[in-house]
Amino acid sequence: MINQLQEKYQLSLLLLLSIVAVLGVFPFVVIRFLEHNYVAAIIDMTLVIGIVSLVAYAHKAKQIRLVSAILAIFINAGVVTIVVANGTGSFLWVYPVFASTFILVRPIEAFIINLVACLSLLALSDIFETVSLNSFVVTIIMLSMSAFVYASHGAKQFSLLETLNSVDPLTGALNRRAMSTDIQAALALAERQGVSHVLAILDLDFFKKINDKFGHAVGDKVLKDFVTITTTHIRKHDRLYRFGGEEFVLLISDSNKQPQAFIQHLRTAIKNELKTPDGQEITVSFGVASWVKGTTADTWLKRADEALYLAKENGRDCAVFSKD
């Protein structure tokens, strides 16, 4: 599931970077021209146009990760070029550019890009004839370490936020928010490319009796065990969501060409492995609906729910497939 919050955050950072590029770099374009330093002026102008163009493309195409990586490489190449061309007059731009790299890409990627830029400066520039190489190395290491720690901490916080935003805290299955996003993505893929998915609603049979007989703590453990067993028997591209109470939704990817056999195998596996504290088997009813043209999220769930109702009418512990 795409982390929409992180996408918006990254887009806002890209927008901020483009504003900084215009407000911070563009004045130097004018200054370089007035000083008749046309080479440096052209390089600065190329940086401004390139950054603004890439950010605009990111907002339009939503290719945030790709554009951020390209932008990180672009600005590092740009700062090396301007230092080589303009010498000490542009040397201090190295520091904000290196710090920005950690904002644009993952910490380890930023470290590698900055390392390549540093080596390029050492190889191509004569700046260190006037600037202390030792001071440069020490300050760049301190900057990179600080930025690396900050970026790593931010990445961990986003990962935690994504988990809290998409995972059911009791069972560890994905939650309804994640289900809504994934169903919409599956429908869009199906309508655009004809890639079909299968949606199933799973309901633990007579779950209330388990709670009444053994207590809610045992009932919670049964739900957790059910999720563990189910996720063990589905593939990495399939998704299990807690729909509410003892009901779950399973989104089966198109790569499964025999969904009926898959569902029956899963139902049997759950029946054999999921037990009450006194060793009684716990069965599950399935209502299954394949994608058909014109399907919406609501109609898809409704068809699966109607099939589940028939499964319960047929005595439970079975799977009913929608005929639509």
Number of helices: 11
Provide the low-confidence segments as ranges. Answer: none
Q: How would you characterize the largest beta sheet?
A: 5 strands, mixed
User: What general form does the structure show?
Assistant: elongated
Order of helices and strands: HHHHHHHEHHEEHEHE
- Fraction of residues in helix: 55-70%
Counting helices, strands and paired strands, the structural category is alpha+beta
Quaternary structure type: single chain
Q: What's the overall average pLDDT, rounded? A: 90
Query: What order do the strands of the largest sheet run in, or round the barrel if closed?
Result: 2-3-1-4-5
Distance between the termini: 28 Å
The total count of strands amounts to 5
Radius of gyration: 28 Å
Strand content is: 5-15%
Number of domains: 2
EC number: 2.7.7.65
Protein name: diguanylate cyclase
Catalytic activity: 2 GTP = 3',3'-c-di-GMP + 2 diphosphate
InterPro entries: Diguanylate_Cyclase, GGDEF_dom, Nucleotide_cyclase, Rev_trsase/Diguanyl_cyclase
